[in-house]
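Extended Data, record Malate dehydrogenase (NAD)
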Amino acid sequence: MLANEVKVAVFGAGGTGGAIAELLLYDNFGEIALIDVNGALAEGKALDIGQAGVLTGRDSRIYGGNDPAICTGAQIVVITAGIGRRPGLAREELLATNAQIVREICEEIKQRAPDAFVIVLTNPADILARTAWEATGFPANRVMAQGGILDSARLATWIAALCDVSQRDVRAMVLGGHGDHMLPVRQFASIHGIPATLLMSDELWQTAVEHTRYGGGEILSKFATHGAAVTPAHAVVAMIHALLSPVPQVLPVSVRSEGAYGLPEDVFIGLPVKLSHKGVEAVLELPLDEDDITQLHRSAAVLDNAFQTWRNRQSSS
């Protein structure tokens, strides 16, 4: 399917939602719906972004408002709505509020865009993707969260800087949860096909890992009032393009594990997948080191425990 034949709905017109809409305009998507509880904000951003189409030679139809009905018929829905991170606030602490917001949005998606792919960006994204999967009742191959693509970009950036090479030559992959328990996989990092282990010391690798693991918090501390927006938006748009392609792309995406790597079946966690117009075609079970497997299971346990704790509290309230 061509981009100009596709409707994308974005719930949340904040920094990241607006950036996603802008990138979709540049890529000439046919229809872009921007939805926010602050309808004036969504309308204003839609007007501002849409008027750029004249100067960039784009014909996307973009509109905004607070009525969820404008997501009707979307082939892809992105959820960025919810309260954001603040300095000192862990992603998991956002769960109680944002889970309710995501569930309400998913009820609208289920009614108005029943065939859509759903991409969750709202934090804690891995846990909320699981929430969205349960709330929509959609097949698991159509519900996912962004996380690994963003973290992999951060890792690649630091590898390039520390090794003094072009970012275009670096490939990296981060698995696990999107947060402090992520798993940067050293054996999958390369520089123009050369294993990064041959070009960077253990110390340099650990420096890159630390900057990646706490990269979101570092940006948040600089902004103080909000987190990163531009790179997360590019990561989501990369997923959207993969979801339109008949040729699968191998990407680190937060998906239902289905028991891969011996993980709990229902946990949503960053894994290497083949992503295409069919959605998540397959989880690739790659030969990870024993330490990496242990860390991946530890990350899954953190996510599963947080989800189960939240659900138990909901049941008892």
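Summary. The chain has two domains: 3-145, 148-304.
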